[in-house]
Amino acid sequence: MPTYDDQNIFAKILRGEIPCFKVYEDAETLCFMDINPRTDGHCLVIPKTPCRNMLDASPAQLAACMRTVNKVSTACMQAFGADGISLMQFNEAAGGQEVFHLHFHIHPRHDGVPLRAPGQPGDMGAIKGHAEAINAALS
Length: 139
Prior knowledge:
The longest helix has 22 residues, at 59-80. It is globular, with a radius of gyration of 14 Å. The chain has a five-stranded antiparallel sheet. Helix 2 crosses helix 3. Helix content is 31%, strand content 18%. A hairpin with a 3-residue loop joins strand 1 (22-25) and strand 2 (29-33). The chain has helices at residues 9-14, 59-80, 124-138; strands spanning 22-25, 29-33, 43-47, 84-88, 104-109. The protein has one domain: HIT family, subunit A. It is built from three helices and five strands. The protein has 139 residues and is an alpha+beta fold. The relative contact order is 0.24.
């Protein structure tokens, strides 16, 4: 498997080189909004330590991410009055991965509402508002 590239966009976010709309942070993970949201409230959970994806992640990295996924997903259900959550995670290019730092996509879902098309930039004001709604639900 290829090695971890510390110049990927999520590593740059972790170092503060690129801004993000933070949703939640603890000692081991960071959750922030996806700027190409496929649902309202689409956010990403990443470990703060380097790993390319699930295939090279340690059990501790995976466990930390899943604790945060659980916490933020529950908040998303409340913040968006969602009917469910879709959790997505991709590994390597053939598996659909585009950013090679382990990440989990949280999608608040509503019955009968499909995911939006991938790769479409969202409205930054709306994304900021969604982050604030999740933050409020976490409080």
